[in-house]
Amino acid sequence: MGKQEMQAEIRVLLIDDDAELGSMLTEYLGGEGFTTTVVYDGKAGVEEALRGEHDVVVLDVMLPLLNGVEALKRIRQASDVPIIMLTAKGDPVDRIVGLEMGADDYVPKPCYPRELAARLRAVLRRSEGGAGRQRGQAMVLGDLKLQPAQRQACWRERPLNLTATEFNILEALLSGGDRVLSKDELSEKVLGRPREPYDRSVDVHVSNLRQKLSALAGDAVEIETVRGVGYRLRGK
User: Contact at 8 Å (CB) between 84 and 165?
Assistant: First the structure.
């Protein structure tokens, strides 16, 4: 996707009470082809996010009126818009909580504009299903059916409500067949970045996906943990 295309299409909602950071990111991202709207508190941020006019949300954890985790929860109740959390550097708790609540990725503060732009592009590629890949026939495992082109997954015709990241993890596991996919491989394929030391992002996304599969399929479909290696999808 070229910059001119992105300028016309990609709308970023930044929810952060740091006016200086908002101004700096708006200027930088504008040069990278993104159009940014800044909202300075969590309550207004939720309202803006649920208008459905933005392609991706960047959400700070520390916000006035409504904190970032609660804002994330409210957005996720009604929308699957991709969300990147801004978290305190060196604080894994905020990151894990955000991922458990349905965030697609996180960027630690201080926030470097180039890194944020790269994460935005990665999460947008994931939500679109990976630009340039051939995405044709449905993928099936027993009564589990995934349609990559339509970005839909269901169990016995009952839809699975998945985030973009969870959908892509499920697709990767289905594509892998009986092969165990390592956490490093899943991070590269699904998050679009190398896995960092002590990074639990893949584990949390897999845990969320596992819970959603279990709620519909019980133990008929299992994401097997292969200790020290990674994950594999099993049908029973």
Answer: no
